[in-house]
Amino acid sequence: MKRGNRKNTVHDVLKRAGRNVKLSMCVMGLGQMLYGQIGKGLCYFAVLVMAVIYFVHRGFKDLAGLFTLGTQEADTWLGIEGDNSVVMLLMGILSAIAVLFLVYCYLSNIKDAYETQKLCERGGRPMGFREELKQFLDRKFYKTVLLLPILGVCVFNILPIVFMILIAFTNYGGSTVPPKLVDWVGIDNFVQVATLSQFAPTFIRILGWNLMWALISTAVNYFAGLGLALLLNKDCVKGKAFWRAFPMLAYAVPGFITLLGFKFMFSYGGPVNQIITGMGHRAVGFLDIDAKWMARIIGFTINAWISVPSIMLLATGILSNRDASQMESAKIDGASAFQQFRHITLPFVLFSTTPVLISQFIGNFNNFGIFFFLRGGLYIDGYFLASDTDLLINWLYNLSINNNYYNVGATISLVIFIITSLISLLIYTNSTSYREEDTFR
Amino acid sequence: MKRKTARMIDTALTHLILIAVCFIFLFPCLWLILASFSKSGSIYSFKGFFPQEYSLDTFRNLFTDTEMYNYPQWFRNTLFIAVMSCLLGSFLVILTAYTMSRFQFSGRKMIMKTTLVLGMFPSFMGMIAVYIIMTQFGLINKMWGLILIYSANAPMGYLTQKGFFDTIPISIDEAARIDGATNLQVFYKINLPLSLPIIVYTALTSFVFPWSDFILPKLLLKEKDLYTVAVGLMNLGETEFSRFAAGSVFIAVPIVILYFCLMKFFVNGMTFGAVKG
Fold this sequence. Notes:
Helix content of chain B: over 70%
CATH topology of chain B: MetI-like fold
Number of domains of chain B: 1
Number of strands of chain B: 0
Largest sheet of chain B: none
CATH class of chain B: Mainly Alpha
CATH architecture of chain B: Orthogonal Bundle
Order of helices and strands of chain A: HHHHHHHHHHHHHHHHHHHH
Shape of chain A: flat
CATH topology of the largest domain in chain A: MetI-like fold
Shape of chain B: flat
CATH architecture of the largest domain in chain A: Orthogonal Bundle
Helix content of chain A: over 70%
Distance between the termini of chain A: 23 Å
Largest interface: A-B, 99 and 97 residues
Number of helices of chain B: 14
Oligomer: heterodimer
Structural class of chain B: mainly alpha
CATH superfamily of chain B: MetI-like
Number of domains of chain A: 2
C-alpha cells in the first residue's frame, strides 16, 4: 500500500522512464497496453481520442474565441449571423477546463505507467483491469464518490463564478450586449467604480452602510440569541421545551413569508398604520422613499426576528456541552452570576462559535432578502439605481439583473468577494477548529 | 429570607422577559393565521391587526379560484422541485462529507479551502452565467433545470455533515478494515446506520431551501404554469392579502410541523457544524 509514498519528481520520471513509459508519453494508454493492462490502456486511449475529436471539432475554435470574443458582428441587413460574444466566452471557459482535464489525464497516465514500471522492476505483476476497477470501491473509493459532486460544482458553481470574474474585465453591459461584440477592457471597470461620478459616490455610500449593517446586526443577533439561550437555561425556568417552541416557530416559518408578512404589516394600509390613523394621526410611510432611518431600523428588527432563534438554538446546544463543574467551583468561590458569565460562559461560547460568527457576518453582509422584499426596486436621488437601505448585493441585483449593467455588477461582486473572503479566511485559518481539526479523533 | 425574595424577583423577572419574547415571536404568526381566515380579502377592511369577520372562504378560494392565481399548481411545482432536490442533494452531500471526513488524499486540504473561498462569492453573482448555461442546455422553463442546480450546489455545504462524521470514532472503521471490509462496505454497513441524525438534518435543510427559495425560480421559470409558491405569493398585492396569508399558512404549517418533530436532530446537526466548523 505504501509504495506510492515517495513523490515522483519530474526529473526522476524523465531519467528513469523505460520504453513503455515513453510510449505512454507519446500516446496515452499505449504503455499500459504493452504491460498487458489492455482495459486500462484502452480507457486512456479513449480519453485521448475523444479529446482529439472535441478539439478538432470545436475546442480550438472555442479556445480562440475566449481571446477574441468574436470578430464578426451580426448584421441583419446583410444576413450575417454574427458571433455571440457571451456564449463564446462561456464556451471558451469550458474548453479551457477541457484542456486542464486533458492535462490531468495525461499526467496521471504517465504516472500510472511509471508506477507499473517500478512495480515490475521490483518483480511485481501489473494489476488486472478488474482488480483495478475494484480499487475504486476500496482504496480509491474517494475518487468514485467525489466525481459527481465535483462535476456538479464545477459546472454550476465554479463555471458561473469564473464567467462573472471574467465579465468584470469586459465591457459587457449597458448597450454593449449581443448581438453587439463584447471586448476585453482590462481593469477599466474597477477604475470606473472607484472614480466615475456615476458609480463612485453610490458605491462609497452603500459600502459604508453595508459594513455598518453587517456589524450591528451580527452583534445584535448574536448577543440577543445568546442571552435568550442563557435565559432559557436558567434553573428557575420550568417547561423549557414550551418556551423554546415560540422562537422555533419563528425559525421554522420560511423567510420570504416572514418578510412579505412584515412588509404588509408596515404598508400604508397595514395594521400598524390603521392603528396610527385610528388614533387620529396621519399614516406613516415606514418604508417610503424618504424613510431612511425608519426603514433601516425596521430592517434591523426584522432581521433579528428571523436570525435570533437560530443563534439561540445553536447556543443552547453549545451550552449543554459546557463543563458544569467549572461553574460549580466558581460559585463556591463566590463568583457573582455576572462574573460567571463574563469569565466562564462567554469565553467558552465565543470559542466554540467563531465559525458561526463568521458565517453570520458574511450572511448579514450579503443579506439580500430583507431589503429586496421591504423596499425592492426603489431608486433614490443621490444613488445610482439604488436606495439608501440597499446593501451592495441589492445594488448588484439592480445593476445586473434589472438594468443590464453586467460588467459593473461583476466588478462589485468581486469587491464584495474580496472584502468578505479576506475577513473570514483570516479568522478561519487562525481559528482552532481549523488548525486542530483532528483533536477529537 | 432576603436571598429568597431576591430569587423570587429574579424568577419573576425572567418569566416576564420570556413572556414578552414569546409574544414577540408569536404575534406575527398569529396575525397571519387569523388573517388567512378573514372573510374579506383586502388588508384595508381589517380593524387594526385583525379581520372583522372570519370564514373559511379564503382557503376555499385558494384551491378553487385558480384562474388568476393557480395556487394548487404552484404548490405541486414547489413540492416536486423540493422533493427531488432533497433526494439528490442529500445523497451528494452525505457522500461528499463522508469522503472528506474519512479519506486522507492529496488535494483534500485544497478542496476544503476551495469550497470555503467559493462560498464567499455573493450567492447570485453567477446567476447571469447560470441563466446562459441553462439556455445553452435548453433547461430554461424546465423544473429539472432547477433541481439540477440545487442538487449540484448542495455538496458545497458539506461542512456540517463532515463535522458529524468526524465524531464517529475512526477505530471502528479500522477494525472493520482488518476484518476485510472494503471502504464501500465500511460506509454503508457501519457508518450509514450510525448517522441517522445527520441524514435527517441534511434531508430537512435541503428540502427547505428549494421550498422557500425565490431567486432562482424567478429567474429560470418564466411561465405562469411553472411558478413556485414563493414566486406566486410575491405577486400578490394588498387587496389579495388574505389569499397571501392563506397561501403562506398552507405551506408554512407542514414545515413548522416537520421542524418540531425533528427538532432534536436539528439542534444536534447545527451544533456539529458550529463547533467543528
